[in-house]
Design brief:
The chain has eight helices and 18 strands. The strands form four sheets. It has a seven-stranded antiparallel β-sheet, covered by helices on one side. The protein has a four-stranded mixed β-sheet with strand order 11-12-14-13, with helices on one face. The C terminus is likely disordered. The chain has 361 residues and is α+β, with helices and mostly antiparallel strands. The chain has three domains: 153 residues, Sandwich (Jelly Rolls); 75 residues; 97 residues, no CATH class.
Length: 361
Amino acid sequence: MIEVIDNFLSVDDAYSVVDYCKMALYNYGETDCDNMPPTGMVHEIDETNSIYELFQSKTENLVDGLTLNRMYVNCFAPGENPYWHIDGSHGVTFLYYSNDEWNLDFGGETQFLIDDEIVGILPLPNRMVYFPAKIMHRATSFRDRHRFTLALKIWYMKRFTLAIGNPPYGVGGNLAIKFLNKTSEITDDIRFVLPTSVRKPSSLNKIVGHLHCVIDEDLDSATFPGGINAVKQHWEVKNSSRFTTGVGEIPMVHEHPDFEFLPYERRDEANVFVGEYGCGPSGRVKTENFVHYAKGHHFLRAKDSKVIDNMVEFADKFRAAASQCNGRYHFGKNDLITTYIKCLEEKYGEEYTQSEGRIFD
């Protein structure tokens, strides 16, 4: 995943690159990701430069099917604190450490977020590190001197300006999501007709983070036969993740203080039933005669009669949320809880639901 090559250049070439980085002219204004202030300074390396030719020749055989898109030098002053970011949806980033000396007290490692752990690569002189551009990472600064890294952004060639389509949906819309993710490797502009289920957090968590939905519109219910509900969406590839930095997905909610999800074996203790799957029971609320339903539905123990009354009142909203998919309806725990909270806010106001302790921070 992360590859390291020490003594990447000859000694003479390494010293030449160090001198080049120190003497280059830099511009301020580069940002790590959208909506963040600039950090560091950047010097662009032109294709006609001998440094460009040197690094292009040294890296072109390390990755297949990719094209060098950009080469530049990053310069960070002592004490700067760059932001976490990704470099893109596809391709490979190369970082060459062009400082002429280093020891552990200098600091300045490149940090990567791998499986919720921060992994550091030390900036040893004449070291090259390369990694998939979609890995979350950031630079760190030296303690008392400027830090120079030469960066190469090597991408798959974007073969198309635009993609328009109505991909096959598959079970739960999963096949459509695979088409969407794969299409982002060949174009930055995707306009698809997709199942309404792509709006659910569980589906959005499967769509790669660098894809950003800029238009989301309902299609008329008569567009497709057989009760297929669809949306028209416009997605764009950006060099930033739509997820919260360091999280990588939309948090899913699995519990609420107003009620307890009981295991199937304790369904006799439940005082509310909410169907999870199937076009018949999904999203429907029952307060009696429900213990015969199969395993997999929601058997709830509500804390008081007021909660039960609210559940019954919100049943139509539950049912509407459960129908936001194609094929068999589905109303999971996260769907139930988030819809319940939304209904409470609509009925009582957000201040009430927070003061009652019914919304988690």
